[in-house]
Amino acid sequence: MSSAAPRTAEPDHLWSVDEHLDDILATVRPLDPIELHLLDAQGCVLVEDITVPVSLPPFDNSSMDGYAVRVADIAGASEEYPASLEVVGDVAAGAADPVHVGPGQAARIMTGAPLPPGAETVVPVEWTDGGLGEGPAAGMRARSLAPDGATGQVAVYRPAPARAHVRAQGSDVRAGDRVLEAGTVLGPPQISLLAAVGRGTVRVRPRPRVVVLSTGSELVQPDEPLRPGQIYDSNSFALTAAARDAGAIAYRVGAVADDAETLRDTIEDQLVRADLMVTSGGVSVGAYDVVKEALAHAGDEPGSGVEFRRLAMQPGKPQGFGSIGPDHTPLLALPGNPVSSYVSFELFVRPAIRTLMGLQDVHRPRVRAELRAEKALTSPKGRRQFLRGRYADGVVTPVGGAGSHLVAALAQANALVVVPEDVEDVAPGTEVEVVLLG
């Protein structure tokens, strides 16, 4: 997972956003490939090219319910002068030994059934009387209700060219074609294709397992009553949902009280199911910032260690990153304010998850947009600011203020407006960089 401990810097070093992200991505490594059954591989990244052993479709087959016939036998057919053909049997989907169609003959054929020997084309049942002798039919009689429908005479009212309504062998893909490339994320269409070409298992990088926990004695679970000084734990829910949205299998751990020993024990217990750990809260300079306290000796394992940093960004100045445990599991420690936590996830945790998955493009898309606001935006000098916004049609509008506690405003945002470190105000109408969140 991680090949080395993160870089260290002087205690008063102010890290840039890019330095911190580069350090994370230089440390985190893609997970080792494994062989998975198809449905277990959904959302995973292929590590092999897929070539097909058989053509799709594997044989010429009908795209309609109707009659398989010879072209010459229906050449002059019309409603006034229908072609009358002898029905010699049924050809159903899955038929291994279909009937032979000779001159003046027809076979009832079902959608997906192989084109029988001797037949050259298919006429839909609606172009015939369905063997009933009562004019154009709306459909076929069910075999179970009228077994004699597969014999007798059928009137055909329209001609058809050769191979009409016939799906040709290999018209989708041919044996030996490469249909999926390594690096493809397996969604429902790709899994359908793999099943269609006979692959029951596939070699992929697994979805990373991400354990999310929040810290704070003030945190209460939703649906429980609040006492004075308490708030509901939203961070663990937001980060778990964000990790799943990024492609991970995410496990949410209930909020841990401000006790370093309890937090340390919880982290150790969770390492068994973690490819990546994410904490929120307890990374600043307060007396109750227990994440820093609990992880102070995380570097006792050779090659492990967690460093707590100050970043030149707003929100999200305090951050922690490193690896813990015997397997050097990566850990990202995020600030506790909800907006700071979520912005930090988007900038640092999501790329780490996507890297573990083996994806090449790990970042959210970015675009340029016109800022539409009632007044100029201000930003602290020397900090890269990320403001919530609504983006549409090349225009972005700020949502809410700069406060890192404004969860309601975050819920209305679909983008982050980026204000560079050397910019202190942005006038309306200015073109700005925008990170698209969804």
Measured by DSSP, the beta-strand proportion falls in: 25-35%
SS elements, strand count: 29
* Count of runs of 4 or more consecutive helical residues: 7
* Average residue pLDDT: 90
Distance between the termini: 27 Å
Radius of gyration: 32 Å
Overall, the morphology is: elongated
Helix amount, in percent?
A: 10-25%
Question: Can you put this structure into words, describing what you see?
Answer:
It is a single chain. The protein has 438 residues and is of the alpha/beta class. Helices cover 17% and strands 29% of the residues. It has 7 helices and 29 strands. The strands form 8 sheets. It has a 7-stranded mixed sheet, with helices on both faces. The chain has a 5-stranded mixed sheet with strand order 9-6-8-7-10, with no helix packed on it.
Key descriptive features of the protein:
438 residues, alpha/beta, seven-stranded mixed beta sheet, five-stranded mixed beta sheet
Question: How would you concisely characterize the structure shown here?
Answer:
The protein is α/β, with parallel strands linked by helices. It contains seven helices and 29 strands. The strands form eight sheets. The protein has a seven-stranded mixed beta sheet, sandwiched between helices. The protein has a five-stranded mixed beta sheet with strand order 9-6-8-7-10, with no helix packed on it.
